[in-house]
């Protein structure tokens, strides 16, 4: 029981000690917040208000100052006493052990101090802005006054560089100076908000005037010096070119010079009205037109140099092509007496001759024009290029035609050599057949032999004509070549069939007395050989008979024959 009592006493002591400590903590917070309030009261806001109030503000600036002043009075007369009242109540609640009420009072004091701090910062910032605006605008008055003095000096000292725009520039500067005086009065009156708007407009207008003063001299030099000087140079150059027999296609140069001069005067009027964007665009157009005139004249000057240097070369090229054409026509006529020309070479050569005559006529006309009258050299140069291209093409065609007709001679020689070879081959075949000493030659073979022989004789006859057709001869040679190959094959077959048939008949004689079938086959094969002259069928009959009594022997005899064969047939 005593232990419980002692525990209760200890807890009570601890609670009491805790309460006492928390009371001291709350009292310290109250004291610290009162000290912060005192610091806020010591801020120089009041003196700042008096200083700004002495600036003789007006208008919206004065209205803003008065609002700030009212805000400060509210803080001074209401917020500060509120903190004192809350601090006094809080201290009393701490002493009365009203801990929760005291804690609420401390929280209220903190909120009030924060509000005062925020309001003080805002008021101070507003006052700083008003002072800064006043100071900046006072400085801007000095800067602008000095700038306008410099602009006035520039216009007086360099008025010649601005040409017809000087009057409008002076008017613009005068309007700016008047607007500046209004701005200076507004600054002096203290209406800084109104002055800020005026200042922005002044700065924009002043910048525009400065940009005009910078841009105009170059534009005016172009219109007053560069362009007129270039037009005079073009006019003099044009006159000299005309005096030296130059001409221009659709010559509008004099009209262009006059029109560009008018555009220059019109653009000077535009410059006097300070429409600089339009002046810049017009100057670019004028510059391009002048450049085009320079280019036009330079083109003719360069063209004359090329014409003078190349005109005779083209003339020599034409003469060379004409000689080539004359030689080619003579050669075509000569070869045309011996050969049929299937490639229309004569017609093609005469067409080229006609084209050469047209080129010659055109070139002679240009030569006469250059000698007797002003000419457009660029047009002559263009024709020279075209003539050169045409001559290149004509020469290429002449070469192709000449090569084509010259090949006829070689083709004839080749054809005669081939014909001679065919003649030798068919005579060799004839001698080979005769040397076989056969009892007779199959009619089908002889018919084919005479067909090929007739073809060779016909080709020989065609080759011996006064005027030969090489295309037709080439076709005949191709046909004979195929027929000769076929005849050689038929000759080989005839030779092999006859030789093998005779050899196998002799070999089978050993079986005639012992084998009736072989004997009958041998008699039939011999009849086909001697009377019918059908050597292929004779070989077939006797081969079957031999195979029936001695298989494989036919192949052995055939192989042996082929090895011993001494001729190509």
UniProtKB/TrEMBL annotation:
Cross-referenced NCBIfam families, in alphabetical order?
Answer: PRK04778.1-3
Q: Could you list the residue ranges that cross the membrane?
A: 6-27
What are the entry keywords?
Answer: Cell cycle, Cell division, Cell membrane, Coiled coil, Membrane, Septation, Transmembrane, Transmembrane helix
Q: How does it sit in the membrane?
A: Single-pass membrane protein
Reply yes or no: does the keyword Transmembrane apply: yes
Q: What is the name listed in the Swiss-Prot or TrEMBL entry for this protein?
A: Septation ring formation regulator EzrA
What functional role does this protein have? Negative regulator of FtsZ ring formation; modulates the frequency and position of FtsZ ring formation. Inhibits FtsZ ring formation at polar sites. Interacts either with FtsZ or with one of its binding partners to promote depolymerization.
Identify the residue ranges that face the Extracellular compartment according to the record.
1-3
Record bears the keyword Cell cycle: yes
Cytoplasmic topological segments:
23-569
> What is its subcellular localisation?
Cell membrane
Q: Which GO terms describe its cellular component?
A: plasma membrane; septin ring
The record, for InterPro entries, names: EzrA
Q: Which family does it belong to?
A: Belongs to the EzrA family.
Write out the coiled-coil annotation as residue ranges: 113-212, 377-411
- The main location is membrane
- What does UniProt list as this organism's lineage? Bacteria, Bacillati, Bacillota, Bacilli, Lactobacillales
Write down the species: Pediococcus parvulus
Superkingdom of this protein's organism: Bacteria
Swiss-Prot/TrEMBL GO biological process terms:
division septum assembly; septin ring assembly
């Amino acid at each position: 029981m005593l232990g419980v009592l002692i525990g209760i006493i200890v807890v009570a002591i601890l609670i009491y000690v805790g309460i006492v400590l928390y009371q001291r903590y709350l009292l310290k917070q109250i004291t610290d917040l009162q000290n912060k309030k005192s610091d806020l009261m010591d801020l120089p806001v009041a003196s700042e208000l008096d200083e700004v109030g002495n600036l003789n503000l007006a208008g919206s600036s004065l209205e803003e100052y008065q609002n700030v002043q009212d805000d400060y009075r509210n803080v001074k007369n209401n917020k500060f006493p509120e903190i004192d009242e809350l601090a006094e109540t809080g201290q009393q609640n701490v002493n009365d052990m009203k801990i929760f009420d005291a804690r609420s009072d401390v929280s209220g004091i903190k909120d009030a101090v924060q509000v005062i701090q925020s309001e003080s910062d805002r008021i101070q910032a507003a006052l700083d802005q008003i002072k800064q605006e006043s100071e900046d605008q006072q400085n801007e008055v000095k800067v602008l006054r000095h700038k306008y003095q410099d602009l006035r000096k520039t216009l007086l000292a360099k008025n010649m560089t601005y040409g017809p725009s000087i009057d409008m520039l002076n008017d613009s500067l005068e309007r700016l100076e008047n607007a500046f005086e209004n701005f200076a009065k507004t600054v002096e009156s203290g209406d800084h908000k109104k002055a800020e708007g005026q200042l922005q407009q002044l700065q924009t207008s002043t910048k525009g005037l400065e940009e005009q003063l910078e841009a105009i001299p170059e534009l005016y030099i172009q219109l007053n010096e560069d362009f007129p000087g270039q037009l005079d140079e073009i006019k003099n150059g044009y006159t000299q070119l005309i005096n030296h027999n130059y001409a221009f296609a659709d010559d509008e140069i004099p009209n262009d010079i006059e029109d560009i001069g008018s555009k220059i005067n019109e653009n000077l009027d535009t410059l006097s009205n300070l429409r600089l964007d339009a002046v810049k665009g017009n100057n670019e157009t004028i510059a391009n037109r002048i450049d085009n005139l320079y280019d036009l004249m330079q083109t003719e000057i360069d063209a004359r140099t090329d014409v003078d240097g190349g005109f005779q070369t083209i003339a020599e090229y034409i003469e060379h092509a004409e000689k080539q054409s004359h030689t080619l026509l003579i050669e075509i006529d000569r070869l045309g007496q011996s050969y049929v020309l299937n490639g229309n070479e004569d017609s093609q050569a005469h067409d080229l001759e006609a084209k050469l005559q047209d080129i010659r006529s055109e070139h002679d006309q240009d030569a006469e024009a250059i000698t007797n009258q002003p000419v457009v050299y660029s047009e002559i140069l263009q024709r020279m290029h075209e003539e050169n291209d045409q001559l290149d093409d004509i020469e290429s065609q002449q070469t192709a035609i000449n090569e084509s007709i010259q090949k006829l001679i070689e083709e004839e020689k080749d054809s005669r050599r081939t014909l001679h070879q065919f003649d030798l081959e068919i005579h060799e075949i004839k001698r080979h057949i005769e040397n076989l000493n056969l009892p007779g030659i199959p009619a089908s073979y002889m018919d084919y032999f005479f067909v090929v022989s007739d073809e060779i004789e016909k080709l020989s006859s065609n080759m011996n004509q006064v005027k030969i057709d090489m295309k037709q001869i080439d076709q005949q040679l191709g046909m004979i070549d195929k027929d000769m190959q076929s005849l050689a094959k038929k000759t080989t077959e005839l030779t092999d069939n006859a030789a093998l048939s005779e050899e196998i008949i002799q070999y089978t004689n050993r079986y005639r007395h012992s084998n009736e079938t072989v004997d009958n086959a041998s008699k039939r094969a011999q009849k086909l050989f001697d009377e019918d002259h059908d050597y292929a069928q004779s070989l077939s009959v006797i081969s079957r008979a031999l195979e029936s009594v001695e298989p494989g022997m036919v192949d052995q005899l055939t192989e042996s024959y082929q090895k011993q064969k001494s001729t190509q047939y």
